[in-house]
Amino acid sequence: MEAFDLLVVGGGAAGMAAAAAAAESGASVALAEREPGLGGILRQCVHRGFGRAVFGEEVSGPEFASRLIARVLASGARVLTGTAVTKLERDRTAMLSGPAGYFRIGFSRCILAAGCYERTAASLPVAGTRPAGVFTAGTAQAMINLGHYCIGSRIVILGSGDVGQIMARQFVRMGKQVVCLVEQRSAPGGLARNRRDCLEACRIPVRLRATVDEILGAGRVSGVMVRELDTGRRTPVECDTLVTAVGLIPDRALCRPLAEDGRLPDWLRLGGNCDFVHDMVDNVVKEAAALGAEAAKGNERSNGENGSRADAF
Fold it and tell me: CA–CA separation, 281 vs 301, rounded Å?
């Protein structure tokens, strides 16, 4: 059985930054990524706005990812793409499944940088028959930017955070009609620069203190029912696509079986959005790089210090 000083689970921004920093500090590192290539969500984020704090200039998501990938490959870390970590064991071994089959590796420390998954329309109290034309923002982004699909022409977006705003701007630039963004809060979410560059610059209508409580149509979306939260009034809005941008949930599934007495083992740390959802990828990279360098030195803080509790999983 092959063994490493550090196992990093996840090949997105956090995982790459942690793996590169640890390997550059002299640790033997295995970086496992279940997708065929490294980069994570950055690969589908074709807009610019990344890298100011890390590279001193604004770059697109794929360019940001390519720079991190080059650093990882130069660091000497063992990169295992197309390889999923299926289980972490208390004896500091992990089961992996990849092109080489099902196998086990050992490690001294582990950083879980598995990122997040999206809340879907199925998790919301929304009535309807679930016709075609309902997408999470991340799925829509991947289909458009990686698959080059057309997902619709008249679009309602539920949620006005950064991802929802950025997708709205992209739809407008593609010549699609964004009928409106629907937001339950009394003001749009996200960064101020996205509100300025997306909502205001593209003049995208926003319906505040409202939600979508029914999807209309059979076979294909024909509209949604928008409910005003303060009055209860319901209004049908015609569209052929609903994109939901209603939040991210840290993917900590591998952690849950290891939690004991409210805490995780000292050898396991959370990195990037797997720890908490960040506003900027630059911050993810800086924090994860520090975590990787710390792991390489074997200088782990206790979970009491880093706040990893079982009730967070």
Answer: 24
